Amino acid sequence: MWRWQITASAAAALLIAGLLGVGFGPVNLEFGAIVRTLLGLPNGLENEDRTLLLELRLPRVVLGALVGAALATSGAVYQSVFRNPLADPYLLGTASGAGLGATIAITNGGGDLHALLPIFAFLGGVLAVAATFLVAGRLFADPSTLLLAGIAVGSFATAFQTYLQQRNSAALRPVYSWILGELTVANWDVVKWAGFYILIALAVLIRISKVLDALMLSDEEAYSLGVSPQKIRLIAVAAATLATATAVSASGLIGFVGIVVPHLVRGLTKRATNRSLLSIAFVGAAFLVIADLGARTLLSPAELPIGVITAFVGAPFFLFVLRARNRGSQ
Amino acid sequence: MINIENLSVRFDNTEVLQSISLDIPEGTWSCLVGPNGAGKTTLLRTMLGMQSYSGSIKYNDREIAKNKSLNIAFVPQRPSIPAAMSVAEYVMLGRAKLDGWGKESAHSRNIVHEMLEATQLLGMQSQLVNTLSGGEMQRVLIARALVQEPEVMLLDEPTSALDLHHQISVLNKVEEIKATGVTIISTMHDITLGAMYAERIIIMQSGRVLLDGESQSVIHSPELRSAFDDRISVHLLENGRPVIIAAKRVTGLEQGVI
Fold first, then answer.
1. Taking Cα atoms as reference points, which of B127, B76, B217 lies closest to residue A328?
2. 8 Å CB contact between B188 and B158
3. Do A218 and B76 touch (CB under 8 A)?
4. Would you place residue B22 in the very low, low, confident or very high pLDDT band (cuts 50, 70, 90)?
């Protein structure tokens, strides 16, 4: 019963966040008309207001939800796979690889390559994770070897990225703003391709979420229960990497969601994270939609990078949950 | 009956287990003894089917690696301890092979309750596993293995993290499990304790079986001392029970040396 209730509450939180997300912005729209437009009822918004809602705010909210769900779920899965509560979705070099890819697109491409930034970032992220596995020596490397290999590959990619950036000072600002994360690029095309990969990855992760419990045991115990922990780890890391790389390529590096949300859900439910992966996906989506609302409205009409909001809100909240949990266990 | 014949395991170019042959009768307790690096844990992992090997390991005439339905439980030396998981939930994971992952039948809840009671954990079932002491965690690991209702139980140093009191209580529990017909194979650094509980001791050194036989005869054999480069000595207590200690520390006790 509790699982059903938690998942339903998390879905409700996403729904509310979504309505707030489309309801507020620099331009005031009547809330009733927004709801009627979304439901396809008569007396909805018209002309520019309709375009503003359906072509700007809605895709942005949907993209925010997809990216939030991807980062939060991947974070939770990485924490299970690496048995490390501080693991985040950028751990295996995804972030630095994507950062390098994005910087190559921004610095070398001028106008042409900039349009390909998402593809470069995606490839950079995926290649960095592949390099991590290569450096670790084998596909079924143990978690700590992978972790160290990820740090090495990440540092290398960051060093290379910084070198490119310094050689081309004009690129500093766009690279910097990309690194802080942005959802301003959202349109239905981005939503479609990002949604395609993210939903596939999330479906895989949620499907294997029950077997992820096996990773809480030692490898021998998991094996004695009929599960190959190495295979589960590989599938989980591959799907989480696909979700993360897609999220990063669509919206830059949005930090903290992958750590805060799983811990928040775990703190509230007192359950191991992979038991509530679907709830984590919903809460992650809601969290990022609300964070983006803050990014759009706090300094309106100017925009704050969303990564600043997630860290600004997420860090104190995270500390609060951590303190509450520690007090609970004492 | 477990029959191991000519079993070898290689890591890269090193042969870590070399031509091991053993017959282990059902419902007995065998204890693997030997210095670090002798291959004890590798042998347990291979018997679990985790390691590729040459030769054969058969349980009731069926090859272990190909027999997925065979229920072998494993109690690890170094457990993985998740955050935010209660003792009862952790123990319930042991039912996954029988019930399916993420499922809990009423029957399974009864068995978990029964095994928590048997391991004196009933009062702690809602406590989080990451807040337990070493002794409590060891009992949780054993309870988790027991709810699996295994035919064979492999224990890797089940007493290494425990004080004397808990060593005895854990080993007594394993002895009770053996009495129900489960075959027990354990590794143990404390040979004295191993000989006290297991009816059979298998001495390993550098990936080979040096000697294998009834505990009391093995413990008095010269092979035992040679496996540890003569750095241990065997003493007899007044009641005739042997005590094995590190040789450097026994000056003044030479009288009892065998």
1. B127
2. yes
3. yes
4. very high
pLDDT of B240 reads 74
How confident is the model over A121-133, as a mean pLDDT? 88
Q: Are residues B175 and B114 located together in one domain of the fold?
A: no
- DSSP state for residue B254 in the 8-state scheme: G
List the CATH number of the domain containing A289.
Answer: 1.10.3470.10
- pTM for the full predicted model: 0.83
Average pLDDT over residues A217-241: 90
SS3 B15: strand
Tokens 């241990």 belong to residue? B232
> pLDDT at position B258, please?
44
Q: Do A271 and B94 touch (CB under 8 A)?
A: no
Say if the Cβ atoms of B97 and A216 lie within 8 Å: no
In angstroms, the separation between the Cα of residue B161 and the nearest Cα of chain A is: 16
φ, ψ for residue A231 (rounded to 5)? -65, -45
Share of chain A above pLDDT 70, in %: 91
Q: With 60 as the cut, is the pLDDT of residue B156 above it? A: yes
Q: Hey, are the CB atoms on A219 and B101 less than 8 Å from each other?
A: no
- Which residue segment(s) compose the domain that B25 sits in? 1-70+151-224
Residues of chain B neighbouring A216 (CB-CB closer than 8 A): 80, 82, 85, 90, 93
* CB interface of B with A, residues 47-106, below 8 Å: 48-50, 68, 72-74, 76, 78-80, 82-85, 89-90, 93-94, 96-97, 101-102
Least confident of A186-200, A315-329, B38-52, B85-99: A315-329
Per-residue pLDDT, averaged over B65-83, amounts to: 83
Cβ–Cβ of A220/B93 closer than 8 Å? no
How far is residue A87's CA from residue B182's CA, in Å, rounded to a whole number? 40
- Considering its fold, how many domains does chain A have in total? 1
Per-residue tokens: B148: 């699996």
- Exposure string for A221-256, b = 16+ CB within 10 A, e = fewer: bbbbbebebbebbbbbbebbbbbbbbbbbbbbbbbb
Q: Are residues B141 and B159 in the same domain?
A: no
Mutate to test the interface with B, among A81, A221, A270, A325 (most CBs of B within 10 A): A221
Q: Look at A271 and B84 and tell me if their CB atoms are within 8 Å.
A: yes
Taking the CA atoms of residue A290, residue A293, residue A297 and residue A303 in that order, the dihedral angle to the nearest 10 degrees is 120
Tokens of A7: 């998942």
Please give the average per-residue pLDDT across A215-224, as a whole number: 90
Name which of A64-73, A135-144, B224-233 the model is least confident about.
A135-144
Q: Tell me, what's the pLDDT at A115?
A: 67
B134-147 pLDDT, tens per residue? 888 988 999 999 99
Please give the tally of structural domains in chain B. Answer: 2
Beta strands in B141-255 (DSSP E): 152-156, 183-187, 200-205, 208-214, 232-236, 242-246
What is the rounded radius of gyration, in angstroms, for the C-alpha atoms of chain A? 20
Residue type, A223: Y
Same domain, B20 and B34: yes
Q: Which residues contact A170 (CB under 8 A, 6 or more apart)?
A: none
CB of A41 within 8 Å of a chain B CB? The answer is no
